[in-house]
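Researcher: Next entry in the queue.
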Amino acid sequence: MNETNRPVSLEGRWDILYRDYADVYEAFSRIPKVPDLEDILVTHFAISGKVVVDVGAGGGTSTFPLARHAAQVIGVEVEPAMLSVAREKARTLEVDNVRFELGDAQRLPLLDNSVDAAVAITLSNVDRRVVVAEMERVVRPGGLVLWVDVAPGWYGGELEPVITGKPRNETIPNDEILASLGYEAMDVFMDQDYGMVERLVSTYGFIHSKRVIDHIREHGLTTIRWKFRIRFKQPLA
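Model: Structure for this entry, 237 residues:
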């Protein structure tokens, strides 16, 4: 992408972010959240020593941390630019228990009952019913499905009211889809420290909106608080 044509903000166009600004997404996703999400998942769920599929793996941001605990992690990603980032990272890190596959979350390129656990972290622009059905299809009997997303009302973290221009609403019907399918829920709070105002502007602000950029600079923000919701079903009979 020609930097002279770079917009001030993508105004929430994640599709353009994944396609044209994989480097920005990587910089954004590499800012650690405390406590670490993958550590929370490994502590509370049976992932250690298992074969896991990371659905919507992106550049491998969640895949590689999960691989520190799992026997094998298969990252499935639909966007070729992000898949290229992930595979290059795997080569650099020389990780031998990770592989990446090009594939749609709604049509996973895996056989039935072929993994012990399926994990989807912040997967957007998909039909949740279809994706979790696919995740359940590829998981062996007695396995685990985890759907991790920003909690309702916390899109973009604590600045959702700035992003949307509306008061925070924590009762969103979309969240009830997984509840209706028998998925339990656990909420966790995490803090993401960017260290500098302009680092927050160039990643988080660039993704969300000019209004958010102005708010960050006006208030001198360097940290964003997040609320995540972990939806889980285990074991699968």
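Model: The mean pLDDT is 93.
Researcher: Noted, moving on.
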